[in-house]
Amino acid sequence: MNLEEGKAVIKPLLSEKRYRHSVNVSREAVRLAKKYGADPQKAETAGILHDCMKDLPADKQLKSMEQFGIILTDVEKAGKKLWHAILGAAYIEKVLGVTDLEVLTAVRYHTTGRAGMSLLEKVIFVADFTSADRDYPGVDRMRKKADADLDAAILEGTAFTIGELLDGGWAVHPDTVNLYNETVLKLAEKK
Ligand code: FE
Ligand code: FE
């Protein structure tokens, strides 16, 4: 699927703001892919599609996941924000016919991350934090890290996400904890 096809697919599914975010993530993912040696074509596709289910109402997301036979863990059931990634991967595979496993997993893990991520998964995970539309406090720092070392950006991103979850009293997905731990240990080794 090329960029134009991807745009046409997501346009009717998303708000204008989310549509623009998706285009920006796609663009940023291509940039990072070229910089770090991932496949730019796959980065473009995964980037444009990564949030395709995000604006579907929560009850419909849940229903769709049931129809796809997806079984959620208790932490996933409690974390509505995780649903669009899990459903998104199933949707692009089963409805859009995306067969590339790397693209599917990049979409699947773009929110939680996981230990042992492929380069493409890392690129999408980080691009979602550093796309041009992002303006949270600390985004400049995050962009600098993304340009210096993907793993450093992942550490920053997972620490930020876990911090927010702790502050809010929410459960933390084990995949995110595993990615955080893996990255801390990996960066300690690099020093
Ligand atoms: Fe997302
Ligand atoms: Fe996103």
Q: Please write the string of helix (H) and strand (E) elements.
A: HHHHHHHHHHH
Strand content: under 5%
Q: pLDDT under 50 segments (min length 5)?
A: none
Categorize the overall geometry: globular
* Gap between N and C termini: 40 Å
| Secondary structural class | mainly alpha
The oligomeric state of the chains shown is single chain
SS field, number of helical segments: 11
Rg, Å, rounded: 16 Å
What about the largest sheet?
Answer: none
Binned, the helix content reads: over 70%
Mean pLDDT: 97
User: How many strands in all?
Assistant: 0
List of distinct ligands in this structure: fe (iii) ion
Which terms summarize this structure?
single chain; 191 residues; 11 helices; 71% helix; 0% strand; binds fe (iii) ion
Summarize, please.
With 191 residues, this protein is mainly α. 71% of the residues lie in helices and 0% in strands. The chain is globular, with a radius of gyration of 16 Å.
